[in-house]
Specification:
The complex is a heterodimer of chains A (about 300) and B (about 270). Chain A is about 80% helix and about 0% strand. Chain A has 15 helices and no strands. Chain B has a single domain (about 35-265), classed as Orthogonal Bundle (MetI-like fold). Chain B is elongated. In chain B, about 75% of the residues lie in helices and about 0% in strands. The interface between A and B is large, with 46 and 44 residues.
Chain lengths: ~300, ~270
């Protein structure tokens, strides 16, 4: 690993640690800036009551909340009394039913459209003209699909809702992957790299097999992180209309009820998960891409 | 930014906006003469029908459109200026330690779920469209400044910049007279291409109820309210959906048109 990459990984870990150190300040701000009813936050996140709170210092609240975060004890929901961790984990299991197929579908369809648009001029023209469809927000797509399913008499409360939510969630990622693949194919097709290897006696197929596919995989890996950020961030746009009780739906409910422990739990979970995924992606890229390790 | 864009089209949009304002004013006067009726489907007096408390959906939709346009109109120039200042400063001072810290911080920032962080911050500062705009600016500036920084670093390697340095021109002069004009056009395009993202995030905040507060309305709020009446009162969400689609198509056409113009300018 070269020095630059090493530093990047160290910085990432350091910033993640700083984020975790920053999060416990939130209940303190909520309590002492009077953003919410302190008793709910205290009871939810720290299992204390208001009279106990009067006697404890800021540091005590901060340190006990930090300890709770590290021990995955994010408090109990002020609305349902369940632990925030169990709400987040049950939501995640439900959300994974949509996220995993959506990622797979996005890659497959994005790749197929990208190759098709690159091979035929007509296809490319169709793609360029229809790109605006992919700009339409997924919430709008969800609403239209829900209404359409009801209109044609499909029971949208059955497993169909997962398929519909999956389609709505994959629309924008398909657009991103298609455009990125098109760009990579164009760049690779006209690169000096290709000409150089052809001059060395490699056939085009050999060059593609040995190098170019690998570059495309590295490109795909780079999108993976962004796609996950996008999907987790906007998950509530598909889960709320279809009534899927995943992370997004529960997040919306928590916000509606000012259920701070659950909101904070979701934020900690999201930030930690995506930071870890980022580190793993970085490590895999480092392993695959010789350009990153060479000095 | 507008220099790249077709001026005749700009006039067309201005005319259309004025016409819309006139229609809304006349319509508002007409609606105030009629008693509000709850849950009324679209009629001649209430073009888009009325909602659960008798508010006119057309007026709500127009207000939501206004909110969306104002949000973009504030956030876009703010992130443009903020990104430019931060990006140029980091590139200008060229301190290796500062640069390393900045680049790693921004790389970390862009790998975080920005929406979750924004929601987190919004809960701290409280709901309201003003806060949404402030937080949108705050969360979008880092990636914007990274773009400026990268463009500036690339521009620094150009022969004409090296030549100017060798002539003895000051750093400030090269930055203001050569580097900034060099990156300006692509930065304008990049800023405009973020319009859908801003609109999408605004939609998300309002859908979560963290943006515009009742009695005012926004597209996100209208969509959320319409969800409970998806099949019994379709007019509560259908018009919001249509306007959102139109807005996104319009934004897309503006971005595409600018990209095309820029390509023409660059490649002839």
């Amino acid at each position: 690993m070269n020095e630059g990459m090493q530093k990047r990984v160290i910085y990432r870990i350091a910033f993640l640690a700083l984020t975790i150190l920053f999060i416990p300040l939130v209940p303190i701000v909520i309590i002492f800036a009077g953003v919410s009813s302190p008793e709910y936050v205290i009871k939810g996140t720290l299992n204390m009551d208001l009279s106990q709170m009067q006697t404890v210092s800021y540091w005590k609240i901060y340190s006990s909340f930090l300890r709770n975060i590290i021990c995955f004890d994010w408090g109990t929901s002020t609305a349902s009394g369940q632990s925030a961790l169990s709400i987040v984990s049950s939501g995640m299991l439900e959300s994974l039913k949509i996220i995993i197929p959506s990622i797979i579908i996005s890659y497959i369809i994005g790749t197929l459209i990208g190759i098709w648009a690159e091979k035929s001029k007509k296809a490319n023209s169709i793609w360029n003209k229809s790109q605006f469809i992919f700009y339409i927000p997924m919430i709008v797509i969800s609403y239209l699909m829900l209404y359409f399913l009801s209109f044609v008499g499909v029971d949208f409360l059955s497993n169909v809702k997962y398929v519909a939510a999956m389609i709505a969630l994959s629309v924008y990622p398909v657009y991103v992957i298609t455009n990125a693949l098109k760009k990579t194919l164009q760049e690779l097709g006209s690169s000096d790299f290709l000409v150089f290897h052809m001059a060395l006696g490699f056939s085009t197929d050999e060059i593609w097999e040995k190098f170019c596919y690998k570059f495309i995989v590295i490109d795909y890996l780079s999108f993976f992180e962004n796609m996950l950020i996008f999907m987790i961030g906007f998950l509530f746009f598909v889960e709320t209309p279809f009534g899927i009780h995943g992370m997004g739906y529960k997040f919306v409910i928590a916000i509606q009820r000012f259920d701070y422990p659950v909101i904070i739990g979701f934020c900690i979970f999201g930030i930690t998960l995506l930071s870890i995924v980022g580190l793993i992606v970085e490590a895999i890229k480092l392993k695959l891409d010789p350009r990153l390790t060479s000095v | 930014m507008c220099s790249l864009y077709d001026k005749s089209r700009l006039k067309y949009f201005t005319g259309l906006s004025l016409l819309l304002v006139a229609i809304v004013l006349i319509y508002k006067y007409e609606v105030s003469l009629n008693n509000n009726v709850m849950f009324l489907p679209p009629t001649w007096h209430h073009w888009f029908g009325t909602d659960v408390i008798g508010n006119d959906v057309f007026l709500k939709a127009i207000y939501a459109l206004f909110v969306a346009v104002v949000t973009i109109a504030i956030v876009l120039p703010a992130i443009y200026i903020g990104g430019l200042i931060v990006g140029i400063l980091v590139s200008y001072f060229d301190n290796p330690k500062l640069r390393e810290f900045f680049l790693n911080l921004v790389h970390y920032w862009v790998t975080l779920p920005v929406l979750l962080i924004a929601v987190f911050l919004l809960i701290l500062v409280g709901a309201g469209q003003g806060n949404v705009i402030g937080i949108l600016i705050f969360v979008l500036i880092p990636s914007h400044s990274l773009y400026v920084y990268n463009q500036m670093e690339e521009a620094k390697k150009q022969d004409f910049v090296i030549a100017k340095r060798s002539y003895g021109f000051s750093k400030g002069y090269i930055f203001s007279h050569h580097l900034f004009p060099y990156v300006k056009n692509s930065f304008n395009t990049y800023t405009l291409s973020r319009m859908p993202e801003i609109l999408m995030m605004d939609l998300a905040f309002n859908f979560l109820g963290l943006g515009v507060q009742p009695p005012h309305s926004s597209f996100g709020r209208m969509l959320f309210d319409g969800l409970s009446f998806m099949f019994s009162a379709w007019w509560m969400w259908v018009f919001a959906v249509i306007l959102v689609i139109l807005l996104f198509v319009l934004i897309n056409s503006i971005v595409m048109s600018i990209l095309k113009k820029e390509e023409e300018v660059r490649y002839g």
